[in-house]
Write a structure and sequence with these properties.
It is built from five helices and no strands. It is mainly α. It has a single domain, classed as lambda repressor-like DNA-binding domains (434 Repressor (Amino-terminal Domain), Orthogonal Bundle). Helix 2 crosses helix 3. The radius of gyration is 11 Å and the shape is globular.
């Protein structure tokens, strides 16, 4: 799941044209924390994952690889 999550976070962010810093500001976390999610060194808490899904306009199931339908 971690590899899929990291890959989809990066893909969604790039599709929306956001920087890691912009996503971090929206989620009220540090840029380093968000970088760790994309690098698979840490997993976001559910609250943060929900914010990210809302920002990217995708479902949680899509982000974690349970579906291929955003």
């Amino acid at each position: 799941m971690r590899a899929v999550l990291a890959q989809r976070l990066k893909q969604c962010r790039k599709n929306k044209g956001y920087t890691q810093g912009q996503v971090a500001i929206y989620c009220d976390i540090t840029e380093k924390a968000y970088q760790n999610y994309e690098l698979m060194t840490r997993e976001p808490k559910l609250e943060i994952l929900i914010r990210i899904a809302d920002l990217f306009e995708v479902s949680l199931d899509y982000l974690v690889g349970r579906t291929d339908e955003p």
